[in-house]
Specification:
This protein is α/β, with parallel strands linked by helices and about 575 residues long. About 30% of the residues lie in helices and about 25% in strands.
Length: about 575
């Protein structure tokens, strides 16, 4: 009889606590860590890790796999990059609870606000879902199984739509409707939701150009729904900030419910150079006062690749309200209208003071069917050559290609010295990968390998032990995931093995592997030697070791942990 199911030998172990690395072995038995450092005895399988780093599996707390998990049990591409646990339902979005008659509205909302292909959703999900309530959704996921572990936040938007119907996008809720919503949140918490999520972000525009339902809520509604977590005694609130929901409101809620709050996102470049420092210091002060109000930060530049047929990044601008509400042909008519162009330039053009005023010089023409010679060229440079306005050039290229032209704009987080300040924050947490969302527009699901390649190896700005802590124990702690995130006997056998001299993320490439052959951007992992979930090797040398047709080792983390 073997002492262990799996033994990883000779690697440099970083256990996730922030302690320095040490050479030794890690042994796993019955899906759990059995020994760390010295592991005497025999194992059914041995993985040699000499010269490699052995770390806890990485934890991604900000994903949108809520729909994708129903057709992609492998949860690609997160495991490629060493991620063994994800949290979905962020920003208040999700697919449960949803009444059958609202399934189309939910899919159209996800299409607009999270950049998901409606064709992929309709093909992957269809309209006959095996669940309606959040409890049934959790049971469905658990029954079907996944390659990696996941926790789910219950979202404000589906809950509001469930109670109020389409009026959820139009008005405030009555006291009775808020009471009904609170019951749904409490049921979700009792069923194992890891927390409650909401959004007041002006960028979150749903179907037909309408605000997503959570944006129509007032503060008392949000506070009441969050109180369900206080009564349950567990869970975290995740919020995407807006003018009516930021630090003052978070502090008030935290004092009432005694639960942590994490917000999306604190990025370099917000409110101009150095604009991140005020919110960072204010958040740290609140944490020092005993209120767990934790900003999510990211290690990658926020680059969006967009088409004007889905202009997500501009939809918070009032000038784009008619664009959001228009159909495809209507969008083209608006883009050709000189009056619209004048208004667009006044808000985002040269000499304006809008959020996009200085971003056209950080915009690349990434796909130009009408003139391929322009691809990967800077938009402003081409505009100067042609003596035209960059906004006119972008719209003309879009119209010439039936809105198929693509543009890649650097939005935020592109000044590394400022990003370093956020990563060094005493009370920040890595988040905002958005894995599963904006699939054709960005891919930050590779944040973990990017962190290790760029910030640890190339810049030498973050010690390996801190980076591992930031990728594993820290997010697990913030989100109340209690049975993983560290390499310690008795905890889950989630392990990532990588080559510190090679680890990194490739450049993005476009693939057509979503349902209905829809496209998405992906990044390949470099230097990831093995990914182990609950003692099962699911990836080895960039190849899957399990199949979606077979039994998968991932666990549903109800209340932040797997069933005993």
């Amino acid at each position: 009889m073997m002492d262990y199911d799996l033994k990883i030998t000779g690697g440099t172990i970083y256990d996730g606590t922030g302690a320095p690395g040490r050479v030794g072995d890690v042994a796993i038995k019955d899906g759990k860590i059995a020994a760390v450092g010295e592991a005497k005895g025999k194992a059914a399988r041995t993985v040699e890790a000499k010269g490699k780093v052995v770390a806890p599996g990485f934890v991604d707390i900000h994903t949108h796999y809520d729909a994708q998990v129903m057709w992609d049990r492998m949860m690609t591409i997160s495991p490629w990059h060493g991620v063994t646990t994800v949290v979905m339902g962020n920003c208040g979005f999700g697919v449960a609870p949803t009444r059958p008659e609202h399934r189309g509205l939910i899919m159209r909302t996800l299409e607009n606000v999270e950049g998901m292909s409606l064709k992929a959703l309709e093909t992957g999900l269809g309209y006959e879902w095996p669940f309606e309530s959040f409890e049934q959704y959790m049971d469905t996921i658990e029954r079907r199984g996944t390659a990696i572990n996941l926790g789910a936040l219950v979202g404000h938007t589906p809950i509001r739509l469930y109670v109020m119907g389409e009026e959820a996008t139009e008005r405030s809720a009555s006291a009775d409707e808020v009471a009904q919503m609170k019951v749904l949140v409490r049921r979700a918490m009792d069923a194992g939701a890891i927390g409650f999520a909401t959004s007041k972000s002006p960028t979150h525009v749903g179907y037909s150009g309408k605000p997503v339902p959570s944006r129509m809520s007032d503060f008392d509604e949000i506070r009441t729904l969050a109180s369900a977590m206080g009564e349950a005694g567990h869970g975290i609130m995740q919020a995407t900030i807006g003018r009516e929901l930021f630090l003052r409101e978070f502090a008030e809620i935290a004092r009432e419910i005694h639960r942590p709050i994490t917000y999306t996102a604190l990025l370099a470049g917000m409110n101009g150079p150095g604009g991140h420092r005020g919110p960072l210091e204010a958040s740290q002060k609140l944490c020092d006062e005993g209120l767990s109000i934790i900003p999510q930060v990211t290690c990658r530049p926020l680059n969006f690749e967009f088409q004007f047929k889905a202009p997500f990044i501009f939809e918070s601008m009032s000038v784009f309200a008619p664009v959001s509400a228009a159909d495809f042909e209507g969008k083209k008519k608006i883009y050709a209208d000189p009056e619209f162009r004048r208004a667009f330039k006044s808000k985002a053009g040269e000499g304006s003071h809008g959020a996009f005023a200085n971003r056209w010089d950080r915009t690349v023409i990434s796909f130009s069917p009408s003139d391929p010679s322009l691809e990967e060229r800077n938009l402003n440079e081409v505009a100067r050559e042609r003596r035209v306005d960059p906004i006119d050039l972008a719209l003309d290229l879009a119209l010439a290609s039936n809105l198929e032209a693509r543009f890649r704009m650097s939005i935020l987080n592109n000044v590394e010295d400022e990003v370093a300040e956020l990563l060094a924050g005493r009370h920040t947490v890595l988040g905002l990968s958005d894995a599963g969302a904006h699939a054709s527009q960005l891919c930050d699901a590779c944040f973990s390998t990017y962190m290790l390649g760029r910030w640890v190896r190339e810049k030498r700005a973050i010690p390996m032990e801190r980076a591992i802590w930031m990728l594993s124990a820290r997010p697990a702690e913030v989100f109340g995931i209690t049975d993983r995130g560290r390499l310690m006997p008795g905890l889950a056998g989630d392990v990532t093995i990588f080559d510190p001299d090679k680890v990194g993320a490739s450049k993005l490439r476009r693939v057509y592997d979503l349902p209905a052959n829809q496209d998405r951007l992906v990044a390949d992992a470099e230097g990831i030697e093995a990914v182990i979930v609950n003692g099962t090797v699911i990836r080895r040398e960039n190849k899957d070791q399990v199949t979606p047709e077979g039994s998968l080792p991932g666990k549903l983390l109800r209340h932040g942990r797997a069933k005993p």
